[in-house]
Design brief:
The protein is α/β, with parallel strands linked by helices. Helix content is about 30%, strand content about 20%. The longest helix has 15 residues, at about 50-65. The structure holds S-adenosylmethionine (SAM).
Length: about 260
């Protein structure tokens, strides 16, 4: 697949450097992403399937099951150390690209694509409550067949390349700069072909998050700001807010799931 960087998707640069609208807030290129510890992140966030993640997963599963997709070229952006956003794409994927910038996360993803850990089985069981998913009898093998891990920045995504996509907790959580948050959403939507279904998840009210000894910044968002950011690039948009389950994950107010179709 030719990887031609996106252009004109809410920001004008086509490189891993940030959009250049420096607000004084920490930008993506200033952060040491190679210090991200995927093992710690998975243990802390996903070793137990939380009620809020279960709800996001169920809704994402239902959305893609109704999207009439087959043999699709799918993408998950900023996959990090989380496999559950790719599971709802599995039955419909001819190929599934997991794009990530941090080197340790890329390595972690490659081991998981080769054969994912049992930790993800409860997540798959949620998917398999629907017949389209239950028909995939060996999801590990399917992911190994269709999955491909790319070290690729959200700011360098090629235009109009994929038929379906997910991006969970990325636009809000890769810097403290609002221009970059907007840019990441624009790049993601523009990387999809027109009318492609997508699901995006956001943390609301987060100022950042710890991964082991490291602290990573976030853009502190309200629901109305997310809705406004997506309006130009998408249609048939559905928004669902999931209140934070105690104990709170790093002090955020809740999560927002946005599904819809890319305008292209
Ligand atoms: C909060 S984590 C979310 C990870 C995962 N999607 C999840 O649902 O838990 C943010 C992820 O974005 C990745 N990231 C940071 N900068 C990026 C960039 N420019 N392009 C793509 N991914 C990036 C980080 O390495 C990290 O894996």
């Amino acid at each position: 697949m030719a990887l031609t960087p996106a252009a004109g998707a809410g920001c004008n640069t086509s490189s891993t450097t940030p959009p250049g609208l420096h607000s004084g807030a920490t930008v993506n290129s200033e952060i040491e992403w190679d210090t991200f510890d995927p093992q710690w992140y998975v243990r802390h966030n996903y070793s137990v399937l939380r009620a809020d993640d279960r709800e996001l997963l169920r809704r994402t599963r239902d959305f893609f099951a109704d999207a009439t997709l087959t043999g699709a070229h799918c993408v998950d952006v900023g996959s990090g150390a989380n496999l559950y956003p790719v599971l709802p794409l599995l039955p419909f994927a001819h190929s599934l690209d997991l794009c990530e910038w941090s080197a340790p996360n890329v390595s972690w993803l490659r081991t998981q694509v080769d054969g994912f850990d049992e930790l993800w089985d409860p997540y798959w069981r949620v998917c398999a409550e629907l017949p389209a998913y239950a028909a995939v009898t060996d999801p590990r093998r399917r992911l190994a067949q269709v999955g491909r891990v790319l070290r690729l920045s959200v700011f360098d995504l090629p235009r109009h390349t994929w038929d379906a996509g997910t991006m969970f907790f990325v636009a809000c959580s890769i810097s403290a700069d609002r221009a970059e948050y907007e840019c990441a959403i624009g790049r993601f939507l523009d990387a999809l072909r027109p009318r492609s279904p997508f699901a995006m998840a956001f943390m609301l009210g987060s100022q950042g998050y710890g991964v082991g000894q490291r602290w990573f910044p976030a853009v502190e968002l309200r629901r109305s700001e997310v809705v406004a950011s997506i309006a130009a690039g998408a249609y048939d948009v559905d928004i669902h807010e999931v209140p934070a389950e105690p104990p709170l994950r790093d002090g955020h107010l809740g999560m927002l799931l946005v599904t819809g179709r890319a305008r292209g």
